[in-house]
Design a protein that fits this description.
It catalyses: adenosine(34) in tRNA + H2O + H(+) = inosine(34) in tRNA + NH4(+). It comes from Metabacillus arenae. Keywords: Hydrolase, Metal-binding, tRNA processing, Zinc. With 163 residues, the chain is α/β, with parallel strands linked by helices. Helix 1 runs parallel beside helix 5. The N and C termini lie far apart (58 Å). The structure holds zinc ion. The site of zinc ion (ZN) has 6 residues, from helix 4. Zinc ion binds next to helix 4.
Length: 163
């Protein structure tokens, strides 16, 4: 859907904001009906909170703004496949649809490692649309990690030249 790509672009913009402040670039946007209810990005380092993932922040913000914990009309757009914690929060807040960008082979719980969003034994299942602008979303991450590796390598070189 064209709309999915448009909203994913907004999530990508959020992810870039995270990258600019040294956070792993993951962004999310929550659409309720056809309005943006919340947008945000990963803030784990800034806040030193293991739970400060983009999805959690966005769900929390949307619940506060909409005055309800039930997000039954919501579509959550996120640049990386949700982890187990975020998948849990998505199910518990009854989000209708999740559209994600890049798959996460190390933590993805929306179909890659397991699929918590569509586990029939839970009382809520989520529509999942994987791989929207996946390449762009994944590139943000791979570029970010490459930059970090290079910085580490350079600082090692610096240190060894001092000795
Ligand atoms: Zn997460």
């Amino acid at each position: 859907m064209i709309k999915d790509e448009q909203y994913m672009r907004l999530a990508i913009e959020e992810a870039k904001k995270a990258g600019e402040i040294g956070e792993v670039p993951i962004g999310a946007v929550l659409i309720n009906g056809n309005k943006i209810a919340a947008s945000g990005f990963n803030l784990r380092e800034t806040q030193q909170r293991s739970i400060a993932h983009a999805e959690i922040l966005v769900i929390d913000q949307a619940c506060k703004r909409l005055g309800t914990w039930r997000l039954e009309d919501a579509t959550l757009y996120v640049t990386l496949e949700p982890c187990p914690m975020c998948a849990g929060a998505i199910v518990l807040s009854r989000v209708k649809r999740v559209v994600y960008g890049a798959p996460d082979p190390k933590g993805g719980c929306a179909g890659t490692l397991m699929n918590l969003l569509q586990e029939e034994r839970f009382n809520h299942q989520v529509e999942v649309v994987p791989g929207v602008l996946a390449e762009e979303c994944g590139q943000l991450l791979s570029r970010f990690f490459k930059k970090i590796r290079e910085a580490k390598r350079l600082s090692r070189l610096d240190n060894s030249s001092l000795q």
